[in-house]
Write a structure and sequence with these properties.
alpha+beta, 8 strands, 320 residues, 2 domains, endopeptidase fold (from Nostoc punctiforme), elongated, disordered N terminus, single chain, 8-stranded antiparallel β-sheet
Length: 320
Amino acid sequence: MKIEISLTSHISKPIKYYVNKIYRKKISPKLGSIIYSDFGQEGIYIGNDEIVTLGSYNTLNETKYVKKISVDTFLKNNKFLNSVYISSNSNGAIENEKIVEAAIEYIGEKNNFGLVFKNTNSFIKKCLDYSKENFFDTENDLEESFKSELGLMKQKAKNKIGAIKWLLWDFELDEKNKKMDIFDDIYKEGVENNLISEENIEKYENLNIRKIIKEYEEIPLNNEIIIHLKKELSEMIDFFREIQDERLPNNIMKLIIKIIRVLEEIIFNYENNENTLNSLGGGFSYKELKETGEDFKKIANEMQKNKNIQDIIKRLGKGK
């Protein structure tokens, strides 16, 4: 299984979506709400069904600019429309006029070669600086090696606007209020434009936790995969902290804990055997490490000494 950004390559995204969709409340954005999609853009809601985001300006010279777009355009640029989240606290969507002022002030700002904003998350973090609040007495940005860009943005939003929760956009409610009566057309067009099959969307919506865990246990491990898994682990821990004060079913909380433990075990087993694995050329999965147990290092040492075994390993694709 190759790790890449797709509907089925992440363990945290489908689990969070499943829990959010079934067990948590859904909301509509307010002025200054931060909005992001698991598979698309991020932006700031400024009212009147408009969002400010960092968009393309001229792909030939790698220049982008901050622009104001409609909600329907924002949704069309997302690959999975149902998975759109809003910055929230225990009372619902967060409203912040300072963030709106910042977003509007940046409209038209060019971003030559990423010198102003590294990406959309960077743009949102700069807008968050307009808020003078520090909810958790953390003035400096958190820098953690294994947090994703989105995770770092969420951490700053938690401190600057008190965004301790991220809840799904309630499109059904908005449609009833006639704010988004063209949502069905947007959804169909978005799926068609982004070439995501209904089969992939169904897999994402209908969580098969055993299959997901099995796929992760069978991934050939290397440093790149481990970095990815550490980011997944960080997201799952953050999500557990986010929902632990909510009255969710015990089996759901146990599921989150199980995923955290599986990721921890995979990472631990790789790092505990990293030198040996590298000496053999890598390519071993967590499942293989678990099945060999304590005998793995003994087997590895014997492999290193025996040239015939090394030749066999190379033919099998495990060696260098």
